[in-house]
Amino acid sequence: QQRNIEGQVTVEFTINLDGRITEPSISKSSGHPSLDLAAIDAVKKASPFSSPPRDYFNDTIHINLPIRFELIR
């Protein structure tokens, strides 16, 4: 907010069967390193997720998550 920057970052990661994430990385940068780092940090802090239902998933789940940073004016 202090730098008055906005943008969208796409974070790519894998959710294991126990709900923990591995290998978070930027698949599409916002063009602002601080937003990219904040997006990775947000995904890491959200872990662990709920375990995926075993009836539907018997392996890891690959996610591409767009995260939009937008200033409220």
Shape: elongated
Would you list the SSEs in sequence order as H and E?
Answer: EEHE
Number of strands: 3
Unreliable stretches: none
Helix content estimate: 10-25%
Question: Overall mean pLDDT score?
Answer: 91
Over all CA atoms, what is the radius of gyration?
Answer: 14 Å
Q: Proportion of β residues? A: 35-45%
Strand order of the largest sheet: 2-1-3
The separation of the N and C termini measures 11 Å
Q: Structural class of the secondary elements?
A: alpha+beta
Largest sheet: 3 strands, antiparallel
Tell me the number of helical segments per DSSP (H or I, 4 or more residues long).
Answer: 1
Set out the fold topology.
Layout: E1 7-15, E2 21-28, H1 33-46, E3 61-69
Antiparallel strand pairs: 1-2, 1-3
What does this molecule look like?
This protein is an alpha+beta fold and 73 residues long. 19% of the residues lie in helices and 36% in strands. The protein has one helix and three strands. The protein has one helix at 33-46; strands spanning 7-15, 21-28, 61-69. It has a three-stranded antiparallel β-sheet, with helices on one face. A hairpin with a 5-residue loop joins strand 1 and strand 2. It starts with 6 loop residues before the first strand and ends with a strand. The model has no long low-confidence stretch (mean pLDDT 91).
